[in-house]
Amino acid sequence: MLALVKSYGLKGLDGFSVQAEIDMHSGMPTYDIVGLADTAVKESKERIRSAVKNSGYSYPVASVVINLAPADIKKEGTLYDLPIAIGMLAASKQIPYDTLKKAVILGELSLNGEVRKINGLLPMIISAKQQGERVFVIPRDNAEEAVFIEGTEIYAVATLSEAVAFLTGQTELQPLTTRSWQNDVEYRRGDNDFKYIKGQFAAKRAMEIAVAGGHNILMVGPPGAGKTMLARAVPSIMPNLTFDEALEVAKIHSISGQLDGGFIYERPFRTPHHSATMVALTGGGNKARPGEISLAHNGVLFLDELPEYSRQTLETLRQPLEDGVITVARNAVSVTYPADFMLIASMNPCPCGNYGSATAECTCSASQIHRYLGKLSGPLLDRIDIHIEVDNVTYYDIQSDTLAEPSETIRKRVNIAREKQLSRLSGSGKRCNAQMTTVDIKKYCKLDKESLTLMEDSFDRLNLSARAYNRILKVARTIADLDGADNISVKHIAESIQYRSLDRKYRV
Amino acid sequence: MYTLKDKLCILFGENGLTVKKFFQLSELYDTADELVRNFDCDDRIRSILGNSYGVLKSAIKKNDAERIIFDMEQNRIEAVTWYSEKYPRCLRDIDEPPYILFCKGDITLLSKNCLSVVGTRKVSSYGRRIATDFTRLLAEHFVIVSGLAYGVDSIAHETTLTESGLTIAVLGSGILNIYPPTNENLADRILKGGGLIISEYGLRASPLAYHFPHRNRIVAGLSRGLLVCQAPLKSGTNSTVELALEQGKDVFVVPGEIYDSGFSGSNALIKSMQGACVTTPRDIIDFYNLESKQVENKIIQLNFEEQKIVDVLTVGQKSFDQLVCETGFSPSDLNFLLANLELRSIIARLPGNSYRIYGGTE
After folding, report:
1. Which residues on chain B are in Cβ contact (under 8 Å) with A371?
2. Closest chain A residue to B316, measured at CA
């Protein structure tokens, strides 16, 4: 007998409907899966056999053929275990087929008949809902992912027999109660709060500006200066994730299996090690998985020790930094993942790390320093608006008991500045000052006479490079927004100039 | 126009003939014409030149000098030879005077009042400060001569340029092959600022290791005195000092901390009394009885906030954090004030986001 069961598949971030067709006829006991199934799907045979037996059913002695339609798209993963097992029970007439509820079934089976967690559940449910599906049976461990999806009936099951009992109508299950989105992230934020960072006033101010304007930032400082600590605290001053943003982030994390049974409430903070390959960073592999930059979408990508990354790896960041998306093309698939992140990079000022430090003398030769700094290409530095030097905190700072300004307060200022930018840039599809084009800069960054003179003076006196010009204007715009000012004044320009350390040719 | 003698100098210079051999050769005949005519047959020439004989012979045959002169003109390079009137007098008296100087820029600087500022390539922040502060004042009175190397040399050139002074860079490589390459930009700016770049080596000569100590005799020779900003015990600076002393030039040394190995050479010079110990640029200006140009009585107007910062910095170098703590200004205000003060050359920003008063502590 033939049984048809609905399931789903995933291509990039979008799902597609899959129909598992299970046919059984008498003959030599065989088990064949067709429909471009990968190894994980093919191995389902052994899992299903044990799960079916251990759940109190009998494994049919018959020739079994399974087709995953549409047959020309690759299927991967373990999520077809549950639909195939149920289809097989129906086809072998152990459970009634006519009364089987027509639900979309997703889930991996363990040998003892339990239903296990799968990857990519969230994007599949969202796609399926858009295509008109209403009823879903999913693993209980994944339930938290789907808790914000409204307008559907989602049933979470823990075992094969529970799924069968529900689908055949023997028992009633309560559908998942959905929650409305409420970002209660406050109490989740732990130690990574700005109030615990002593001193570092310059760096903290620079971080505030960077977050307010969506600027990428580079910290230069000796080892142990607290660069990593500063970076880790950055998500705490970013605006709360909106539901749409959170959904995008959760989808990507769901595909990578990094949701850990929950949902995403906090902005992601990703720190790939500098030995990371290009593929690990941008995404790819034969399944075109999302990389670190997509996992950092709507959050922070922190590259510690920037010059240690291979040149090639860093150069691949240039395009996503500009576009906010990355297209991963592999022989079978081409997928576009969002990759709109804030880049925070850190580096030492020289190979020994002590150049310019107040406490230790640098032992590097000039050519060593030149070589070290030369690892960063101009085009990459071009996409980093703010450079800031971070020096070691003094003992005086560390032992003081006073807490610094909490992230909460800073975030409020950031939110106000962001709103200003949104209303100014509305209609252009841009959200923050960092995204302004040359045309926008001309339009929104008008300078008065005093500021113009200051700009001229500083280019003459401070040996600023030409590419610094637009960066200074953009950052000055953000500083003005934080200040609540409509126009950029000389004060904003002056502060903005302070954030171009690497352009300054005072390094001899 | 170049005379035949000049052309021979250019030819020899381009082919790297040593100074010793050049002068031995020049003693053989009275005129260049005779030398050229007898080049093929005179065994004395052959024995002086040794291995380089063949190369030079064919170069003369091919009339290579014209090609080199064309190349020079294309790159606006001038040659000042031993036989030229423009040859600086101060170099005539030194040991092994260069018989040729390839020059780019204003060659009248060669006969001006020059002072050399030298020191190690590995400069500490204290050495950097010395080089900046001393050069800044000395550039008003002297043409600053240095070697376009990393460290003190670069700082000396760079500071002279910011003070709109004149500077001469003496290279250890060809003029069209600036070494270190990262200083090409600095070399361009020296020329734009009315300075001069000279080298006794062929136009595209490689920066061979022995060139550098050798060119130091020109650095010392061009100037009245030599200022050592920072020298460890083993440093090229010591060779320059020795040459300057041989040439009877004045050597000035700024002392360093006795435990700092980066200054062990400087302090040794003071201890052995080879160099005069100086602690302000004024010491050197007074030594030469120069009228101090005190026209720069710029009345510096500071508002209340700026005065507060300057007061804190008068005590010594401070980091940004310390400034925030000691002045009580918010980081954003402080950034604004610091940028302003820096633009007016009242304070200087150091690597590592630290600040200090610009110039000496007088």
Report:
1. none
2. A358
**Is B259 part of the contact surface with chain A (CB cutoff 8 Å)?**
no
Chain B residue with the nearest C-alpha to that of A374: B182
Q: Do A394 and B321 touch (CB under 8 A)?
A: yes
CATH class of A436-508: mainly alpha
The domains of chain B, with CATH numbers, are 1-74 (no CATH), 107-287 (3.40.50.450), 304-357 (1.10.10.10)
| Architecture of the CATH domain A187-406 | 3-Layer(aba) Sandwich (3.40)
Angle at which helix A81-91 crosses helix A44-54, to 10 degrees, equals 60
CB contact under 8 A, A367 and B150: yes
Domain segments of chain A: what residues? Answer: 2-167, 187-406, 436-508
CB B226 within 8 A of CB B194: no
**B117-164 pLDDT per residue, tens:** 999 998 888 898 899 989 999 999 999 999 999 999 999 999 999 889
- Cβ–Cβ gap B321/A202 under 8 Å: yes
Which residues in chain B are contacts of A367 at CB distance < 8 A? 150, 180, 182
CB contacts, 8 Å: B332 with chain A = 205, 479, 483, 495
Q: Which CATH architecture has domain A2-167?
A: 2-Layer Sandwich (3.30)
Pick from A89-93, B84-88, B89-93, B344-348: least confident? B344-348
Alpha-helical segments (H) within A339-405? 366-374, 378-382, 395-399
Interval B180-190 mean pLDDT: 91
Nearest CA in chain A to B152: A508
What is the value of pTM for the model shown? 0.79
Structure tokens at A294: 């997509």
Residue A470 φ/ψ, nearest 5 degrees: -65, -35
> Which residues does chain B have within 8 Å of residue A508's beta carbon, measured at their own beta carbons?
123, 128, 150-151, 154-155, 158
* Across B175-185, average pLDDT: 91
Read off the pLDDT of residues B212-249 as tens digits, 9 standing for 90 and up.
999 999 999 999 999 999 999 988 899 999 999 999 99
- What are the distances in angstroms from CA B142 to CA A60, A225, B152? 102, 42, 17
Give whole-number Cα distances, A237 to A204, A217, A386, A414, B256, in Å.
11, 15, 17, 7, 47
